[in-house]
Amino acid sequence: MIEISNLVKRHGSRAVVDNVSFSALPGRVTGLLGPNGAGKSSTMRILLGLDRATSGSALIDGVPYRALQRPLWKVGAMLDGPGANKGRTARAHLRWVAQSNAIPTRRVDEVLELTGLRDADKVRIGGFSLGMGQRLGIAAALLGNPRVLVLDEPTNGLDPDGIRWTRQFLRSLAEEGRAVLVSSHLMSEMEETADDFVIIARGKVLASGTTTEVKGEHRTLEDAFFALTENQADYRATGTEGWGR
Ligand SMILES: Nc1ncnc2c1ncn2[C@@H]1O[C@H](COP(=O)(O)OP(=O)(O)OP(=O)(O)O)[C@@H](O)[C@H]1O
Hints:
The protein has 245 residues and is α/β, with parallel strands linked by helices. Helices cover 36% and strands 24% of the residues. β6, α6 (160-175) and β7 form a beta-alpha-beta unit. α3 crosses α4 and α4 (106-114) packs across α5 (130-142). Bound molecules: adenosine-5'-triphosphate. Residues 11, 16, 34, 36-42, 185 line the site of adenosine-5'-triphosphate.
């Protein structure tokens, strides 16, 4: 499971992550939702040991990422797309990731199959569509068969087929008992995908819980989000602190 507690990240005097706390539980897809610049990627980067928190903690199964013995076996991640060399094939890329993390290369075939890339395994990544690239990123994240997955905007720019595939795939990964944390700025899309939601704006958690809890009396998650951020604008205008948590 993922446990973020009182996480703060400051750049200069500005807190881009401002006392964020939430958990992502096994067997559930947790949606980290918020507009551009809300602090989603910053939170994920700290969780994955790519950046240091100013204060607070971000733990994976009780320990920080940097303390994990074999990180790829515990947590799979995709930030900024697949991050693969465009001249390589999908198979070559996955073999390279597997070999550099002591993962048996037979796992490469399994993840190619799981993500529907088997037929494209010899195509150079430079010729991939956006959707295939995202699948490759997810395939690499799954190489170590981790119990925890962290995916930053995996559906960004995808067509409806790609979005539908990703949604169903993430749900199936959670149904296998994994904790799946996925960020998005698309509220309506995530409403169908996630079990639990954390709504973040300007570095602060505005609401968290199940769909019913977060929606409250609002018709959709998007309506709830706009109502919550309108409150934020009001508070900013009056300079009041301490709202929404
Ligand atoms: N190294 C940095 N120095 C200064 N500010 C930064 C740095 N990294 C991120 N920020 C700022 O922190 C804020 C949060 O950025 P972050 O990327 O976490 O947001 P996000 O919710 O993931 O949004 P997006 O979907 O646009 O990436 C932004 O205003 C960004 O400009």
